[in-house]
């Protein structure tokens, strides 16, 4: 009998992309996916551990699934994501109903756990199945963050910045466009520092110029910009593009130098 799996994705758009990659793997592995956790053999919860309210939502969702497991369906409870990266021992200790804990990027290991088979992480098996409406998609250009902001635990949970190469991002963008995506939402922990960590250093401006050439893509939006890293070259690349929207998802810095210093954002 085929195993039926339910994915619950919590938190930010970057988490959503991780869930979409896993969902693609589930579909390609001939596992049945259901939207109803009560019909699932396995519930996978992709958690968020960034803010107090997000942690509370993740814990509440895990506890609800644990209660459901006591009825006999589901028979397995899997937890992944930022909360499991930061508090693996605490979760397994406090919620014994959890069968397995995985990190945010352990897609191969999760599929192997569910199927008993071994898979290569680079296998096309892991191409995303979108959880957004088909006309738009998030495209994650980097993982982790090098900014040591005092209020943020992302570097602890996700590690330092690891940018994807432009060819890898372009391959994904082209495939998304071929599948009907019209709008790309560019995301990272700090999109404006994209490419600084690569052996052959590139910039967000270089990536935007390349994405502007993808046939079928009509709009590109840049999210998660850092005020200190918004360079003139990025502004110029947005101005010169006919697809990149004149819009930036970017927080306003605090007006107090004392607060900025305390935040390590100055």
From TrEMBL:
Domain Radical SAM core: 131-266
Presence of keyword S-adenosyl-L-methionine: yes
Cellular component GO terms held in the UniProt record: cytosol
Endoplasmic reticulum recorded as keyword: no
Family annotation (Pfam families): Radical_SAM (PF04055), UPF0004 (PF00919)
Keywords per UniProt: 4Fe-4S, Iron, Iron-sulfur, Metal-binding, S-adenosyl-L-methionine
Domain spans labelled MTTase N-terminal: 3-119
GO biological process, one term: tRNA modification
Cofactor annotation: [4Fe-4S] cluster
NCBIfam families: MiaB/RimO family radical SAM methylthiotransferase
PANTHER family hit by this protein: RIBOSOMAL PROTEIN S12 METHYLTHIOTRANSFERASE RIMO, RIBOSOMAL PROTEIN US12 METHYLTHIOTRANSFERASE RIMO
Name the record gives this protein: Uncharacterized protein
Organism: marine metagenome
